[in-house]
Amino acid sequence: MEKWVEELLKWFRVNARSFPWRGYRDWYRILVAEVMLVRTKSETVEKMYRLFLERFPKPEDLCKASLNEVKDIFTRLGLVQRAIRIREAVCLILEKYGGMLPCSYEELISLPGVGRYIARVLLTRVCSNPSPFIDANLIRVARRFLGLQEVDVSYIETWLEKSVYKDVLEDVNVALLDLAGTICKPRNPKCSICPLNSSCTSAKTLS
Description:
EC number: 3.2.2.31
Pfam family, one: EndIII_4Fe-2S
Catalytic activity: Hydrolyzes free adenine bases from 7,8-dihydro-8-oxoguanine:adenine mismatched double-stranded DNA, leaving an apurinic site
Structural class: mainly alpha
Helix content: 55-70%
Low-confidence stretches: none
CATH class of the largest domain: Mainly Alpha
GO molecular function, one term: adenine/guanine mispair binding
Order of helices and strands: HHHHHHHHHHHH
Strand content: under 5%
Domain HhH-GPD: 36-182
């Protein structure tokens, strides 16, 4: 295991953020959370996520509800279109797949509201097929760590797949997201307390 991975996981064991969607392997909870989280801060989503599951605790409850009931919650996030997509995706999984999440990437990205990132989260957390899931925040961390001006999603996916053992890939991925949210921020990153500072190409220049 590479040194930076060991240091990151050590930090993560103490500093992992706590959100109500973490720790579950239930496709419904994960799908709801991830659709809500697209380009939206976790702290903003947390309250609405809890409310959503109180109203619609099971996928069947969501599909029995009217679209207006679902829109009501998403309106509070200013994301009404996501209400339509998530309801369509959940009902499609119930109707077409008998309530079992399809575990092929191609079928996942065909679901309404599911793109590359969410599909890979589902593959990792529900289908036991660890696959790096990369968002803009993780791109920022990787770009700084590797000392690259421009880096795309495919490059980071390949880098993580080659650098990290599969059995810890999910933890490393989530740890990097937490690092992005708490330390490696867009402005004024806290390099002095970053667990990766000894391996990070940009740590000295950003400090």
